[in-house]
Amino acid sequence: MRTVLGIAAIACLLLAAMRPSQAQTYTVLHAFTTGGDGANPRGALVRDSSGDLYGTTLSGGTSGYGTVFKLSRSGEETVLYSFKGGSDGQGPTGKIQAADGNLYGSTYAGGPSGAGIVFMVNKAGKETALYSFCSQSKCSDGDSPNGGVIRDANGNLYGTTYSGGAYNGGTVFMLSKAGKERVLYTFCSQSGCADGGGPLAGLIQDTKGNFYGTTSGGGAYGGGVVFKLNTTGEETVLYSFCSQRGCDGVAPIAGVIRDRIGNLYGTTSGYQSNCQGSGCGVVFKLSKSGKEAALHSFTGGADGGEPFESGVIRDAAGNLYGTTLIGGASNIGVLFELSKGGKETVLYNFCSQSKCSDGASPNVGVIRDSKGNLYGTTYYGGDPACGESGVGCGVVFKLTP
Description:
Layout: H1 2-18, E1 25-31, E2 39-41, E3 46-47, E4 53-59, E5 67-71, E6 77-82, E7 90-99, E8 102-109, E9 117-121, E10 127-132, E11 149-151, E12 157-161, E13 171-175, E14 181-186, E15 204-205, E16 211-215, E17 225-229, E18 235-240, E19 257-258, E20 264-268, E21 282-286, E22 292-297, E23 313-314, E24 320-324, E25 334-338, E26 344-349, E27 367-368, E28 374-378, E29 395-400
Antiparallel strand pairs: 1-29, 2-4, 3-4, 4-5, 5-6, 7-8, 8-9, 9-10, 11-12, 12-13, 13-14, 15-16, 16-17, 17-18, 19-20, 20-21, 21-22, 23-24, 24-25, 25-26, 27-28, 28-29
């Protein structure tokens, strides 16, 4: 008896040692409904010092054209603004910028010309259209901003448009605090769009004022580029995708992040249904010297596939985090961690709960707080009563490690 109990006790100790010290917890903070609270979140979240979250939905709201919302730390959702689809814009996309107590962002459509706007929403929920695209002849000022905006210390806003510009390949633009727009760079200005074309993501800026971003197409091989734009508007293609046999990645729809020594990290979407032709996407690293390495190539299976607009974030230890649109246990997307050594771990499989009440198809990335909690959104899932065919209108989630 003692021997049996002793073996059982040892087995229990061994099992306990193998278990994580703390089980991770997945929580749906808000499931969007048909009640005017928004539907289909599209832009990445931002989080303030109080722990409140802010984001946008592509549709829903009182008029069906999308919302800007706030989700309090206690889980209460407030629609700060519902777009009407007219001069105030339609379909906010891309990450919003929180600064000086206001929220800044862009819509891909709406405005007087239907080509999208840059907007501001204040604390009281008043929206101001700061600039309407296609205000100039032949949309030389840009058309269809998709990636949101960033804001500098002087109050100037910067972003990209997917199309428009002198060559209809998209633009990088600046919008001054006074509301004057200036095109800093027009894509497809080189033969064959060797400089890139069709930027869908926003920008990042280094301490010297240089901008970094991606284009979904163009480049030397047609697979999109990572670019740098200096303060004088001179563009440098840092890397052109699909340069290797079998493709090293194609169509970087998301933007990039930068570490302290100048390496860039991001994802390519794959951009083909069922991962055919150009693969299921990669997580890449681009060194300061311009050498690209695929840190992980998605298979579309258990590891996920098609990171779409996710991109990645990076912690102090060098681990990367992001989401994929497909793959995983239910083939409806995963939340993943990629170690500094390139080992991928699926942290969560979406649609793990009945009727995908936990969310499905995360199409943008996540953010992380100082405790390591991850926050994000899914485009579908959640409340089965919302959306067509019971697919749900998306959720805001939290993963506690």
